[in-house]
Amino acid sequence: MVQGADKSNGLLDTAQIHTDCAGDIMSDDAGKGELIASAFADWKDSKNGLVTVYNASGELLSNGNY
User: Fold this and answer.
1) Residues 66, 47: Cα–Cα separation, whole Å
2) Which residues form the domain of 24?
3) So what's the pLDDT on residue 47?
4) Is 23 part of any domain?
5) How far apart are the first and last CA of the chain?
6) Residue 8: its pLDDT value, please?
7) Torsion angle of the four alpha carbons 8, 6, 45, 43, in this order, in degrees rounded to the nearest 10
8) Are strands 49-54 and 13-18 parallel, antiparallel or unpaired?
9) Which long-range contacts (CB under 8 A, 24 or more apart) does 3-6 make?
10) Contacts of 48 by beta carbon, 8 Å cutoff, 6+ apart
11) Domain-embedded: residue 59
12) CB 29, CB 22: distance < 8 Å
């Protein structure tokens, strides 16, 4: 599920991606999270965008700028 991708305020644009990955930021699934964040950044563009990828438990998996 992706939330916040349709909103842009020009100050700090944020988007959240919720996945079914089981790992966290220190696990092997972190690479999947980075790939998801990178794909999002390729799709969406903002001067001050931040995308956060969460695992199935709602914990941080990865984040990146877009």
Assistant:
1) 7
2) 1-44
3) 84
4) yes
5) 18
6) 79
7) 170
8) parallel
9) 5/40, 5/44
10) 10, 11, 12, 13
11) no
12) yes
For tokens 């988007």, the residue is: 15
Task: Supply the pLDDT for residue 5.
Answer: 80
Examine the pLDDT at 7 and tell me if it is beyond 80. Answer: no
Residue-wise pLDDT tens digits, 12-58 = 899 999 999 999 999 989 999 999 999 999 999 888 899 999 999 99
3-class SS at 34?
A: helix
Alpha-carbon gap, residue 16 to 36, rounded angstroms: 11
Is residue 28 one of the residues assigned to a domain? yes
Burial of 21 (0-12, 13-18, 19+ CB in 10 A): buried
Confidence of residue 4 (pLDDT cuts 50, 70, 90): confident
